[in-house]
Design goal:
Layout lengths: L2 H12 L2 H15 L9 H4 L10 H11 L3 E5 L2 H13 L6 E3 L3 H7 L8 E3 L11 E5 L2 E3 L4 E5 L13 E7 L3 E2 L2 H10 L2 H4 L3 E4 L4 E2 L7 E2 L6 E7 L3
Parallel strand pairs: 1-12, 2-3, 2-4, 4-7, 5-8, 7-12
Antiparallel strand pairs: 5-6, 6-9, 10-11
């Protein structure tokens, strides 16, 4: 029987000629062998990110592009002072803080006049006004912060409208590959259920290209970056 007769018979059997025509075009397309494009030197050497000559400068520049606040402090006292200023600028309400000795020391001199929920007391509540955490590393290439479950669980970096990160310049790494390799060697993945890369405040422009911050997480992200180790 001719091929056209077979196609017509199939269409009559299915009762959906349009569907069969579409499927036949797909089958025909799959039978066409597409030659592999030769690799050119221009394609193989294409640069996606600009080279990093100064990680600190690059991180600060990317923070501006990501709508983040990055404050460079000279010592622990200056970091504590700036943290107090940020907390004072927030509405009244609970502050969720990663239970770490460094953060307990940081909050001690300028204890805010509000309740603090430490991460060992449970997950942050919807009424929390801010989250204060450490970072695993800072990625200069994209101005990103790498955190893990140690910061207080999955909700720590998304529930409160403000996320404050305390880190040092010694935690700066050039790119994501270096950051992931570093925490892998330190056993961070073995001790934590997840790792998260945060690149700026939560934002979207899906609706009529109007930028809205705080769409799926904090609308404000503050990095207190202390010089030295």
């Amino acid at each position: 029987m001719p091929e056209t007769d077979n196609a017509q018979t199939k269409q009559m059997q299915t009762g959906n000629p349009s569907r069969e025509r579409i499927l036949e075009r797909i089958r025909t397309g799959l039978r066409v062998v597409v030659p592999e494009q030769p690799r050119t030197q221009a394609n193989s050497e294409r640069v996606i990110f600009e080279p990093i000559t100064n990680p600190l400068d690059r991180f600060q520049q990317e923070c501006v592009a990501n709508l983040m606040e990055c404050v460079l402090t000279s010592d622990f006292a200056a970091s504590a002072q700036h943290l107090a200023e940020v907390l004072e600028s927030l509405p009244a309400g609970e502050i969720f803080v990663q239970d770490d000795p460094a953060l307990r020391r940081l909050l001690e001199p300028f204890a805010p006049a509000r309740a603090i929920r430490w991460s060992n007391q449970g997950a942050p509540g919807e009424a929390s006004q801010a989250t204060v955490t450490l970072a695993e590393s800072l990625i200069a290439q994209t101005g990103s912060i790498l955190v893990s479950a140690a910061c207080g669980g999955r909700g720590a970096s998304v529930i409160a409208p403000c996320h404050i990160v305390y880190a040092t310049t010694a935690q700066l790494v050039p790119d994501l590959a270096t950051a992931m390799s570093g925490i892998s060697q330190q056993g961070t993945f073995d001790r934590n259920s997840f790792a998260c890369v945060i690149s700026g405040s939560s934002r979207t422009a899906d609706i009529e290209k109007i930028l809205v911050q705080g769409a799926h997480g904090p609308r404000r992200l503050v990095v207190i970056l202390q010089s030295g180790a």
